[in-house]
Write a structure and sequence with these properties.
Helix content is 43%, strand content 13%. It is built from 11 helices and 11 strands.
């Protein structure tokens, strides 16, 4: 029997978790260095207070099975290891024994009942994705409180949407649905989408009927456009769109997901007059849970919208002017992002100067003015 310290070094032993932007109902996440790989991981472990809730344990099985099925997909977070730890006293795992199943899902599933009886907790060691790329963090802006909420430029938003829709297409083809779509579960570096947290996701039962599976797929598509795309293109929370509020982290409650998404069937894009009308209409079509639109059909329509913006793809013709316009847009976005990065650097220099000589009021003025300028920036 191995000790926890033989396989992992738990970082920040003072109890600091790294899931503040995506608090889970079933689990917490800490940073842990794997001695087998030498890399830091996101160490996801069952919440101590949920250890006796029998309906929570199967969610770890679901997540492990889904991540294994999607292990070659570029969007899904990578799983490095799964297993069980004996420390059930401390919410933050400190010591004790560990049973690693590595990537052997069958072993994990077969051993789960025994370790549950012993009071151990399941864990999953996952790829650690930079928090700076968290979509919720990006949308909420530099101040982090949503006062100056941002939206993705349509150029990037379309790329994210197509990657996400392609991802859902693969999930649906493997009899899986994501369901709990939130900006805090998505990560975006400007080019590549990543998605975390699959323990509220579902795997179709083998005997599920065609109408039942179609209903789950419709729900998944509707939740996707409400929970991720609406926020990406507006900077607003779909639940409070009439109030113009930025999104905030939603603590996961698997019993409340349907209620959260089901109370909204129309999305207001009136405040985004520059958004492609056909794109707004498409998202609203998919937001209607009675729609029969599949991920494949949605991706096709997204690519038509992208073609109107100059995205050239086989089968989706674009005009010469649109192509050249997009080239200029890309140059402009690159220059703007570079300018924002320099502005951030300038702000930090003024902050350091102020801290070194607080009696010099000019540094305070420059820092405040630059911070306000940066908080009102254009791009996330």
């Amino acid at each position: 029997m191995q000790n926890l310290e033989d396989l992992y070094e738990i970082r920040n032993r003072n109890g600091t978790f790294i899931d503040e932007y995506a608090l889970g109902y079933s689990a917490r996440v800490v940073r842990a260095m794997s001695f087998r790989t030498g890399q830091d991981t996101a160490f996801k472990i069952l919440r101590r207070e949920r250890i006796n809730e029998v309906d929570v344990w199967p969610r770890f099985v679901t997540e492990v099975r889904i991540l294994t099925a999607l292990n070659k997909n570029r969007v899904a977070v990578r799983m490095f290891d799964c297993g069980f730890v004996s420390d059930h006293v401390n919410e933050f795992p400190i010591s004790g024994h560990i049973q690693s199943c590595d990537l052997d899902v069958d072993q994990f599933i077969s051993q789960l009942p025994g370790y549950r009886e012993q009071g151990w907790r399941p864990y999953i060691a996952l790829e650690l994705i930079p928090l700076a790329h968290n979509l919720l963090k990006l949308i909420r802006g530099a101040d982090g409180n949503g006062t100056h909420a941002l939206r993705l430029p349509t150029e990037e938003g379309l790329t994210l949407a197509i990657q996400f829709s392609d991802f859902l297409q693969e999930m649906h083809s493997k009899n899986m649905v994501y369901i709990d779509h939130k900006p805090e579960h998505a990560y975006w570096d400007g080019k590549q989408l990543r998605v975390i947290d699959f323990n509220v996701s579902q795997i179709f039962k083998e005997n599920i009927s065609a109408p039942e599976s179609a209903s789950l797929v419709r729900k998944d598509m509707a939740n996707f456009v409400k929970g991720v795309l609406y926020t990406s293109f507006t900077g607003l929370d779909f639940r409070y769109q009439s109030q113009g509020l930025a999104p905030s982290a939603r603590p996961s409650d698997p019993t409340n997901v349907d209620k959260t998404f089901g109370q909204v069937n129309h999305l207001d894009f009136g405040m985004q007059e520059t958004l492609l009308p056909q794109l707004a209409a498409l998202i609203n079509r998919a937001a209607d849970s009675s729609s029969n639109m599949t991920a494949t059909e949605f991706t096709d329509e997204l690519k038509k919208c992208a073609a109107a913006m100059g995205h050239g793809r086989p089968g989706y013709p674009v005009t010469k002017d649109a192509t050249q316009s997009r080239e200029e847009t890309l140059k402009g976005l690159a220059a703007l992002r570079d300018a924002q990065n320099k502005l951030e650097q300038a702000r930090d220099h003024f902050l350091t100067a102020r801290e070194l000589c607080p009696e010099i009021e000019e540094n305070r003025r420059l820092y405040k003015a630059t911070s306000e300028f940066y908080n009102h920036r254009v791009l996330p």
